[in-house]
Amino acid sequence: MNKTEENENTLNVLGTNIPVNIEEEEEDLLEMLCRWWKEGRPLLIPDIVREKNRARRGITALLKRMVRHGYLEDFDGKGELVLTEPGRTTGLECMYRHQNLTQFLQMVSGMPEEEAETDACRMEHFISARSMEGISNFLKYGDVYDRTYDNMDLGMSYEDGIYELTSAIYEVEKRNPRCLAEESDCYERVTRMEVAGHSACFLLYAREGKNPGTLWYNAKDTWVKAEQRDGASVLPATAFSFTTSASVPLTEGLALIAFTDGKKKPRKKDYRELNVHL
Questions:
Q1: Within 10 Å of residue 40's Cβ, how many Cβ atoms?
Q2: Do 251 and 147 contact (CB within 8 A), yes or no?
Q3: Helices 85-109 and 113-123: crossing angle, nearest 10°?
Q4: Residues of the chain falling short of pLDDT 50
Q5: pLDDT tens track for 110-167
Q6: Do residues 258 and 213 lie in contact, with contact meaning Cβ atoms separated by under 8 Å?
Q7: How far is CA 109 from CA 58, 106, 153, in A?
Q8: How many CB atoms lie within 10 A of CB 44?
Q9: Rounded Cα gap, residues 213 and 122, in angstroms
Q10: Distance CA 233, CA 217 (A)
Q11: For residue 225, what are the contacts with CB-CB under 8 A and spacing of at least 6?
């Protein structure tokens, strides 16, 4: 493969053709200077030029930008550079992110350290503090927390087919312990999950002779009347919040539903919770 073909193939790989912006360059340089400072190494411009393999003019421009941002004390280009307190604090945060992301990527992908560091070097500039905290907790404690996901496409987790699940309908305001709503007795305990074409829905079948009223579900703070199909009320999987745990990929789904006489949209007294066990 020649160089042109290699470059064309690289451009077709998602995430590999994003140019590095000046903010990333500045944070990378700050991280390097902070690492040198921790090692007791003098912060000299010629050493930075050699390490970064960049022209002195470009490095000097970055350093002056860091002075304007309060990371470095002003310099004359001859002596050692001096990190300010904010510079040291921010640089240590960059090092912390880089280290934890590198470990995380190695753990979840098995990639070599050098490759993980390359990816971590890009990710550390964009990832939010909350996401970084979650990754740090994962590295410290392992996957021990239950988590809840909204708008999950179950079609990506299950093969096409019909799955039988247990379900129950609860009062919204009554917890610890939960209290079954009277409508729960109006439905079969077995709810069917239908997965087809990368989408999923739940089918609730009313028991013979039972009429719980018109079933609604809440989707993004909007009440929607459930579709009726072959004697079943149909609720899309995207109306549910799904909980995962360390031991089971998906443990349960929870949807906010309501029952009315069909003439008016639900009021708070009509609200219920539908729980399905996966």
A1: 6
A2: no
A3: 130
A4: 1, 3, 6, 10
A5: 888 888 888 888 888 888 888 888 888 888 777 656 677 787 778 777 889 999 999 9
A6: no
A7: 35, 5, 23
A8: 14
A9: 54
A10: 10
A11: 214, 215, 216, 262
